[in-house]
Write a structure and sequence with these properties.
This protein is of the alpha+beta class and 474 residues long. The chain is 37% helix and 29% strand. The longest helix is centred in the C-terminal third of the chain and has 26 residues.
């Protein structure tokens, strides 16, 4: 690994890889397209997992687990589903030294195996709604892997619910989309564009797909979460039926929704700088690190005694604090290392600070240094962490606003895609052919549909009643 992080302005993709490595988030495994998530990266995932798990349970969902292996015939039952995932499937044909009677698919998503199970669980309207979430790994064979953003194996959660009618399924789909938006905004400090996908971008086999789309510093969009109203497609394919209050058998309505470890990549690209990670305090594994500074043995004893007391007092307040008392490193390399890992606040504490009953607080987001009284330090740092969280969100909101522009001609459309990049809002005639032609010409896709309004399609010149947000995307 190079000791230097490539500047964003020089090579953004290389910068991203450098930040992931220097920030000790993950590394490539011996299997191409797979990654080893390091403790610092996994701790971020755990914080995100805890936030989402609470919201899911608050809205009545329970956790369960379903098999990693899925009979291939299950995928074949829903034509659009198998067509959409066929290029990404990993298929097991042998086990125990023998050829299997039926190939098994390593789960790319779980609608089919869960649909099979739900057909047994759901018999009556009294069994509904069925609200289940699964924390799991999935495998989708990736040709152009990039740590966190696109990997062959990744971690995620996938919710799967069953409802008596379309209205209830739609309400569930939108509720979960709102939760995803809340997590992105309040925990990741990333504002998103939220709405429905075009038909081409709809999840294979779904009736409707809704999405949250974040904007990265290089002007590209990143799909950060999706929520699907599956209609009755999977219910009919797998026989999920219930007896209603009138005694009639009806097919149920189902949903699925999920976000993955891609969110960690989003944090890197939305907030990182040329020094490395910049972590929003709410998801930072370490929110405050204290680095003691001393030269003499007598200074060491006194400084470390008070440093431990300070860190313990912060932990008692619920602040995720750490004392860096490693003696084989000087303070300078420690400062540099914690900057690369994105710790929101660094405290510098030496003999003079001890005598003055102060610490020097250094903000990771702005680099600002300010002496602070030890007395009342916990309360002050809590406020400062909130300020950093809000500041990162405000900065990302400003970028989203500045990099969302409208185009009325293809000339304007292409110019805006290049400078400043980001989202281009334009009229679209609603046809797959136009959407595909724009993608082939500009590499921009419809990320989310906009408002309904009359106009002229930016590409075809045909009448349009719909606007859409286009962007180049990861």
């Amino acid at each position: 690994m190079s000791n230097k992080i490539t500047p964003r302005s020089e090579d953004f993709p290389r910068w991203y890889q450098d930040v992931v490595q220097h920030g000790a988030l993950a590394e490539n495994s011996p299997v191409r397209g797979c990654m080893v998530i390091k403790p610092h990266g996994y701790a971020i995932w755990e914080n995100l997992q805890a936030a989402r798990d609470k919201r899911f349970k608050d809205t009545g969902h329970e956790n369960a687990y379903f098999p990693l292996f899925i009979p291939k015939s299950f995928l074949d039952k829903e034509a659009e589903h198998v067509k959409g995932f066929a290029p990404e499937l990993a298929i097991v044909t042998h086990g125990g030294g023998k050829e299997l009677e039926e190939p098994l698919v390593i789960r790319p998503t779980s609608e089919t195996i869960i649909g099979h199970t739900y057909a047994k669980w759901v018999q009556s309207h009294r069994d509904l709604p069925l609200l289940i979430n699964q924390w799991a790994n999935v495998v989708r064979w990736e040709m152009r892997p990039r740590l966190f953003l696109r990997t062959t194996e990744f971690l995620w959660q996938e919710g799967h619910t069953v409802h008596a009618n379309e209205a209830e399924a739609e309400a569930e789909t939108l509720q979960m989309l709102d939760i995803y938006e809340e997590i992105a905004r309040d925990w990741l400090a990333i504002p998103v564009r939220k709405g429905i996908k075009s038909r081409i971008e709809t999840f294979p086999g779904a009736l409707r797909t809704y999405t949250i789309e974040g904007l990265m510093q290089d002007g590209k969009a990143l799909q950060m979460g999706t929520s699907h109203n599956l209609g009755q497609n999977f219910a009919k394919a797998f026989g999920i039926q219930f007896q209603d209050v009138d005694g009639k058998r009806k097919f149920a309505w189902t949903t699925s929704w999920g976000v993955s470890t891609r969110l960690i990549g989003a944090v890197v690209m939305a907030h990182g700088d040329d020094k490395g990670l910049v972590l929003p305090p709410r998801i930072a594994p370490i929110q405050v690190v204290l680095v003691p500074i001393f030269r003499k043995e007598e200074e060491k004893i006194a400084v470390l005694k008070e440093a431990n007391r300070i860190v313990d007092s912060l932990k008692a307040r619920g602040i995720r604090a750490k004392l860096d008392d490693r003696e084989h490193l000087k303070p300078g390399p420690k400062f540099f290392g914690w900057e690369e890992k994105g710790v929101p606040i660094r405290l510098e504490f030496g003999p003079r600070d001890l005598a003055a009953k102060k610490v020097v607080a250094v903000r990771r987001d702005t680099g600002e240094k300010q002496p602070q009284n030890i007395d009342g330090l916990g309360e002050l740092l809590e406020a400062l962490l909130d300020e950093i969280q809000a500041g990162l969100l405000a900065r990302a909101e400003a970028r989203l606003e500045a990099m969302t522009n409208e185009a009325s001609t293809m000339e304007e459309f292409e110019a805006l895609l290049s400078d400043p990049g980001g989202f281009v809002l334009a009229h679209w005639d609603g046809t797959d052919a136009t959407e595909q032609a724009i993608k082939e010409r500009t590499k921009a896709t419809i990320r989310v549909l906009g408002d309904q309004c009359d106009g002229i399609c930016v590409f075809s010149g045909a009448p349009a009643t719909q606007r859409a947000y286009f962007a180049r995307a990861y």
